[in-house]
Each structure stands twice: as C-alpha cells, then as structure tokens.
C-alpha cells in the first residue's frame, strides 16, 4: 500500500475512510428520496476526486435492461471465486447450470484484495435494491448486483489494458474447467426443426477413461499426451503460421484395442466436449457442413469406423469394386457395413468430408480435434489419410506385456506376480486384444482374487491360442486340398492335351498317306 500510494499512511487512511463512506452510502442510499440521492452523490464524488487518488470500475450483473447475465460479471465471479474463498469471510454458494461443482464467491458487501504485477487492487461486491418491489426478471430477484474494482489512478494503463483481460481470460478458463462436459450425437435432419436447436442431442460426458488407465506402450502414450497438450496450448503458434487451430488423428487397429477408450481419455485430458458424428445419419455434404458449423470450440469431433460409414471407393475402378463386392458377400461383418451404408441413403462424399477437414469451413471455430477410427487402415483412400489432413496416425495394437502391466495395475492393483512371466510369453505368441485381457482381469465373483483372475486370463489365452492353431491347421489343410485339386486338374488338362496332340498327329499322318501332301 505504501509503495502504491506514495503519499504515506495518511492517504491510506483517507482512502479507507472514503471507501468506507462510499460503502455505507451504497447500503443506505435507498432510504433517501431519489432527487436527494442524485445531489448527494454528485457532490460527494466531486469532493472525493480532489483528495481521493483511486479509480473505480463497476461491473453490473445485468447491464442494460436485458435478461442476459453479463459474461464479464460471470467471468469476474469465477475469477474471484478462487481468490475470495481464501480471503473473504462471508461467502455465498451457487450452483450454476451445467457446472460440475458449487461455486463459492464472496457474499454481498464483502471486499477482498488482489495483486497484479505488484499492484494492489480491491474488489467489492454490492447490490442496488430498488425502492419499488416490482416483479422483475433479473437474476437476483429485484436486486441488481455488481462488482466494483478500485485501484490507484497511476496504474490506469496497466489495469485497463492488461489486468482486466487477465481477469476475463482466467475467469473463462476456470469456467471451462468447472463445466460439465457433454457428449453430442447428431440427429437426423427431420428432427432439426422447432424452437430449440436439435441438430445435436447431448448427454453429460462422464467417461472414466484416462491416459493412466489406458493400456499402451509407455513411450507411445507419452508422445500422444505431449502432442495433445502442445496442440491445446498452441493458439498463438497456429495464428502465426496462418493455420486453423485444428488437429486430425487417425486411430486404427483391430477391434477391442482401445480406440474409443483413447478418445474418451483425450477428451478427459483436454477437458473437451465430444461430438460423435454418425455419418450414416447425414444426408449430404450440405447437412454435414451445417452440423460442423454447429459444434463448439474445445471439442473433439469423432467419426468412428470411417470405412463403414462412407463409401470411399467411389472413384475406384469397377473391377476393384467387384472384388470388394465378393469379399463383402462372404464376410458377415463387412456385409453388415455394406448394409448400413446402403440403408442410410447418405450422399456424403469423400470430397465433402475432405472439405470438412481442411476446406473453407475450417475458418469457423477453432480448438477442435478431429478423430477418425477404423479397423482397416489399408481400406482408406490415401487422400483421406495423407499427412497434413490427418496429422497423426496412431496404431492401437494387440496387448503387449507393457500394456498388460497397466491393466494388471488398474484392475488388480498388481505390479508383479509369479504368473506374469508366463503371461508375457503367451502375449508374445498370440494376438490378444486389451479388451480380452481386461475382460478376464475382472473378478467373476465377489470372492474372485488376483490369482484366480490371472489364471483365468492364462486359460483364456491358451484356449484362444489352441483355437488359432486349429484354425491355422484347418486353413492349411484346406489350402493343401485346394492345391491338390488344382494340381490334379492341371494334370488332367495336360493329359487331355497330349491325347488331343496324338490324335492330331494321327490325322495328319493319315492325310499324308491318302493325299500324298504335307499339311
Ligand atoms: N488399450 C486399452 N486400455 C484399457 N482398456 C482397454 C484398452 N483396449 C480396450 N480396453 C477395454 O476394452 C473395452 C473395449 O475397448 P474399445 O471400445 O476402446 O475398443 P475399440 O478399439 O474402440 O474397438 P472397436 O474397433 O470394436 O470399436 C473398453 O471398454 C476397455 O475397457
Ligand atoms: Mg470403438
């Protein structure tokens, strides 16, 4: 205070006295007639400005006559909630819509101090109570709340230019951290009507997966976490290089290897909302664009099983298509995907999707992550997955021993066990998905202990290994049979051919004999 005032303790006391008078005035002015109120206020302010070196800024909760709560007031409330819980003696608790927790803020007529770059500031909360007890729409009933900021006039520049932005940014950041995150899914366009926007339906996103619980090679996991965090802090960098603040991830790998789990972990790490985009419910590229424009910042837009939701083979050669058709007819899973695609009538095209990733729409909104998942990366059109479009390709593969250790720690609280060595060998020999491992590590009964779970896992992997061996044997047998059949057919063809040749030769000799000419 001494350093700020420069004028010594007397001035400090004067400041406090004036602040006290103003404070008491704010509380009691309602009891004076309005005409008198105006006069008293005018002259007191004049007098005070001679002796009083402070500047005051007021932030109303409902500026103007609107219903809308000022975003600045809300941000200040959040900002002060971290500050005031330690310093204010009287607090009020608020449960704000969409928030995960109660916000504690200083109660009316409380004052706290803040410090910014060595400058001391005072924040006070207050309210005006109108004389008439009329019905009103304002948030706090009839009262009009406001915050008052007070600081020495020599810091005017710093406070108005930097400090206020700092408070608003911090307040917004606290709000983002405290808000309930949402999982959105797109509705069919027939439901996009009415007063409320219904392009997306949402539920509270409360998935427990985190990168700690995700089973994966530790180095790979670290790399992904770093990549995400770097992205989330790179606002200025993206601006500098002139690129939209977006990043694309392609997650690929067999079923049950943690692709969807990783998306949840990403959302939890960055505290982003998740938009699960079901492409088969989107009629065409125009609808796709509308949906994407309607997403919010700080979100992950997910298209799962991209190969099933979009016919990516549009421009391919016919013969390739035929080949694929045969394959689809044979494989039940692929047949279902094809069914999904056909049933959906979706006319979203590859180029529509590419425009969505890096076309013009990307100028609207920022801080978005786009994630595609697929089980068949080799099926995707190269245009879709080229670098720059999908910035990072992440393979999620079968469960390695390192990944198993994460699961054992999560599910059984085990860091080591005598059965680990055996499991390591089995995992190296087989293709076991983390989902299968996780399934077996869950106790099947209330008494199920860690030993039983590990034994169950061993049994399950051994059974799968045996099944795979039998399948391989069967396939080898069928292949051998096929080859045998082919060989026999070729032999037969050859024999028939040579019989034909002999016959031809005989005819030729006969003709020579009869006609005396060589054909
Ligand atoms: N890497 C992993 N770490 C932890 N748990 C996992 C992992 N992979 C799978 N699981 C477990 O298996 C279940 C299924 O995994 P998930 O849905 O993430 O697989 P997926 O790769 O998305 O499969 P699909 O290709 O079928 O969509 C999850 O609920 C989770 O409990
Ligand atoms: Mg999945």
UniProtKB/TrEMBL annotation:
UniProt xrefs under InterPro entries: AAA+_ATPase, AAA_N_dom, At3g28540-like_C, ATPase_AAA_core, ATPase_AAA_CS, Mitochondrial_chaperone_BCS1, P-loop_NTPase
Region of interest (Disordered), ranges: 315-342, 472-519
Names of the cofactor(s): Mg(2+)
Residue ranges of domain AAA+ ATPase in the record: 245-400
Gene Ontology biological process terms, A to Z: response to stress
An MF annotation (GO) of this entry: ATP binding
Gene3D superfamilies per record: 6.10.280.40, P-loop containing nucleotide triphosphate hydrolases
Basic and acidic residues bias (residue ranges): 315-324, 331-342
Keyword ATP-binding: yes
Top-rank lineage group of the source organism: Eukaryota
Keyword annotations from UniProtKB, A to Z: ATP-binding, Hydrolase, Magnesium, Nucleotide-binding
SUPFAM superfamilies found in the cross-reference section: P-loop containing nucleoside triphosphate hydrolases
Membership in a protein family: Belongs to the AAA ATPase family. BCS1 subfamily.
Protein name as it appears in the record: AAA-ATPase
